[in-house]
Amino acid sequence: MMNVYNLARGTWLLLCLLMLQCFWLSPAHALSAEQGQLDAFSWDPRKQPLPLDGAWAIDWKQLQPGDLWKQPDSPWFNMPSTWDRSGSAGWNYPGQGYASYTLQIVNLPGRYEYAIFIPEIATAFRLFANGRLIAEGGHVADNAAAAQAYAGNRLAVLGAADDGQLRLLLQVSNFHHHTGGPWQSLSIGPRDQMVSDYYAAMVYEALIASLMVAMAVLLILEYVADRRDLTGLWLGLFALALGIRIGISGYAPFYWLSAAELPWEWHMRLTYISMMISPVLFLSWVQACFPWDLSRRMVQVVSVPFVVSVVLCALLPAFYFTQLLGLFSILLLLVVLAGYWVVIVALVRRRQGAPLVLLGMSALGVAVIHDVLLNNQLLDSGPWLNLGLLVFILAQTSNFLRLRVFQRRQIEFLSQELSAANQELERRVELRTRDLADKAQALERANNQLQVLANVDSLTGLLNRRAFIEQMKQLSELPVKVALLWIDIDHFKRVNDTFGHAAGDEVLSQFGAMIRRIGRDQDRCGRLGGEEFALLLLDCDEQGAVHYARRLQAAMQTLHFAQWPELSDITASIGIAVGRLGEDSWESLIHNADEAMYQVKRNGRNGFRFS
């Protein structure tokens, strides 16, 4: 672990030194045009292309004819630069307008065929060489209605410079962007090498952009499969935004692959929106990686100006939101520095994965800072963003793989520990289960006995009074028609006094068995105490209750007591209350049935009566 941290610290220091080089040691070209002429005598085409920098002649508000050569004359325009305050041309030229540039190159080696690389020029151009149109982007015009903007780099193939001279005329117009003019260096070199480098750079950008989009899709799909961790989602969206920006800017490989491109206005919107949404996704990813070091609330606060910027880019014309490039650049730099600070804090606190995150962020951060300075014409070199993104991708991929291996090893170790613990637990559980099984059986028997004692009358096997009342309460929620029979055995006290309590118990026992025998499974039968019984007949009306009462009276005539043959003619008084549960309360049913039973008692017993 210490080696990883030391590697990350060393890499970060190296990248800081490279960043310092961007500020103070940016390369200076030995050859530069002076007063509209560039002497290529000391240039070796085999080594590197020749930047066409320096003092070009400029004719402001003029579009010189391409087939008529005009000897370069003052005023001079220091290339590359733009027509605004931030360009080296100063206030002499506003951001919008049109102009013609001329440059004469002398002493070109005659044994080569040449090509010229033209980086994107804001916002339309035509390039003539020795009176011949060799490249154009958009449509150059002297008014906004006729002018058309374009995007992307261009390559113009020339022939051989037989006389060693090349006369260039560059027409530029801008009515769409806040800043106009050639803000990057044109360069000339041998045709074969320039064509090879051009398409190699395009394929390289296509590879980087496609890799970013592919990684984004995989990370987003991983989040869809497992939504517990937002790290993959934010990193995927961040990679998607950067991949889109790479794919449509510079060499625009996505346009090349699809053989189609967006209208310039929408191209600029998408370029700026992808640039301004990236910091929000970047900070969200850092917060998901290190939630203890960066709060979600802080990310939300910092994201506000970027969200506002995205809205402005979506709603305003390009001329207006391109004026905010300087402000956008400052915001980007601040986010990069904030991200560095959070990751360094996580590194000091030994957070998991912090070294590789810092490595990738350092490469990407230096590249972003370099290209922001390059876009604002504070540096003179090529773009670094693609290389920074490549290092970033490799670092984060390595970090993901490392975390997955670490998690897999943790899972294997925990699985082994869990397996051993399970085996010991199973042994203990088996012993304990045997003991508990014996106790459970004894407890179940005791519970069953308690349940019977609590709910069942021991003499008759019917529900006791408490259980019967509880059943009526529970059934009172059902909207069904019922008949409640309240039964009292006639002259039961005489049976006890004449034949003894044993004979009385036998009468009660046989009477309870008879009720169970003639009743239905859905009915409820209970002994309320002494010689009083109750039957609750479900789904029963008055006719059904009469039928059941008569069956009960007939069955009582068949009762036979072997030990007491003299004991016969056992009768009962029955009160009946019919109602509907859910509408009539169970208390009123009991009260009405009891009153009807006493009416039968007063009228001679051995009969039934409805309430």
Automatic annotation (TrEMBL):
Which reaction equation describes what this protein catalyses?
A: 2 GTP = 3',3'-c-di-GMP + 2 diphosphate
Transmembrane as a keyword?
A: yes
Q: Coiled-coil regions in this chain? A: 404-456
Which keywords does the record carry?
Coiled coil, Membrane, Nucleotidyltransferase, Signal, Transferase, Transmembrane, Transmembrane helix
Highest taxon above the source species: Bacteria
Has UniProt tagged this entry with the keyword Chaperone? no
Which residue ranges does the record assign to the GGDEF domain? 480-611
The record's annotation in CDD domains points to:
GGDEF
Q: What GO molecular functions are on record for this protein?
A: diguanylate cyclase activity
Ranges that cross the membrane: 198-221, 233-254, 266-286, 298-321, 327-348, 355-372, 384-401
Q: Where is the signal peptide?
A: 1-30
State one Pfam family annotation: 7TMR-DISM_7TM
| Family matches, as InterPro entries | 7TMR_DISM_rcpt_extracell_dom1, Diguanylate_Cyclase, GGDEF_dom, Nucleotide_cyclase, Rev_trsase/Diguanyl_cyclase
EC annotation? 2.7.7.65
Question: What SUPFAM superfamilies does the entry give?
Answer: Nucleotide cyclase
Supply the PANTHER family for this chain: DIGUANYLATE CYCLASE DGCM-RELATED, REGULATORY COMPONENTS OF SENSORY TRANSDUCTION SYSTEM
Q: Can you say what this protein is called?
A: diguanylate cyclase
Q: Which organism is it from?
A: Bacterioplanoides pacificum
